[in-house]
Amino acid sequence: MTFDAAAWLESATIDPAVLALRPDYRALLITAEGLLPGPGDELSERLLADAESAARERFGDGPVEEHPHLAAWREAFRAFGAKPQRTRPSAEALLRRVPAGLPRVDRLTDIYNAISVGHVIPLGGEDLDHYVGAARLVRAEGDETFETTAGGEPVIEHPAPGEVVWRDDTGATCRRWNWRQCTRTRLTHDTTRAMFVLDALGPMDDTALKAAGDQLMEALTEASPGVTIASRLLGAG
Fold first, then answer.
1. Domain B3/B4 tRNA-binding, which positions (predicted)?
2. Radius of gyration (C-alpha) of the chain in whole angstroms
3. Three-class DSSP category at 165
4. Torsion over CA of 47, 229, 138 and 79, rounded to 10 degrees?
5. Is the C or the N end of the chain the one with fewer CB within 10 Å?
């Protein structure tokens, strides 16, 4: 069956219970088909190096968590019971790794991590070939399955009741809004179809959110010249 990106994006939802926590929340969803996966290359390395340089210039030795967007994300985590000192918003976790160098994972993950750091925005990617049904951002019931690893072995976790999670028909795909992705839908060297989520709160306006999305789409197009891209903005009216 041919994938209908527009229809799939239209099926994505944010539960009103999540927006009650943060009415200023918006998610920019981007689908990409025809990606060229694989290990890091000259393009992904250049993007990461540029992001590291920009972050060092922006933050110096200062505390990254005081950036307005990251401070807002810390407040959002506290609103559903998470402790951001232990489970940090993904963009903050990445920025804290800049002094020692950002991780090098694979070309697709490295590309979106570079955009995340450069624009100070939580950003994740999911393999659409392993995604089942519509993407939904919900407050967890607590019985959802979350596939991850511990000590190098696969394990099943369950989010806490009320925790904000992205999920599909099979289970939770990302815990604590943007803290950790499941192993089932993570990007790999075999990923050719993906969905990317860019998470914005009030301090990041729609213009800045669009700029981050535009840079991601440009980078994906440069990395995979035959890629087909679609997008949809959810939330905040």
1. 71-225
2. 17
3. strand
4. 30
5. N
Three-class SS of residue 48?
helix
CA distance 231 to 39: 26
- Rounded to whole angstroms, the Cα distance separating 208 from 228 reads 23
pLDDT digits (tens, 9 = 90+) for 69-122: 999 999 999 999 999 888 999 999 999 999 999 999 999 999 999 999 999 999
Tokens of 52: 């590291």
DSSP state, residue 80: T
The Cα–Cα gap between 63 and 17 comes to 31
Token pair for residue 58? Answer: 């922006």
Residue 27's beta-bridge partner residues? 199, 234
Rounded alpha-carbon distances, angstroms, from residue 199 to 147, 196, 212: 22, 10, 10
Structure tokens at 10: 């239209």
Tell me the sheet residues that pair with 14.
137
Quote the tokens at residue 27. Answer: 């998610």
- Nearest partner of 217 among 95, 109, 111, 105, judged by Cα: 111
**DSSP symbols for 9-43:** HHH-EE-HHHHHH-TT-EEEEEEEES----S--HH
Torsion-angle region of 177 (φ positive above 0: left; ψ -120 to 50: alpha; else: beta): left
Structure confidence by residue, pLDDT tens digits, 26-67: 999 999 999 999 999 999 999 999 999 999 999 988 899 999
> Which residues share a beta bridge with 159?
none
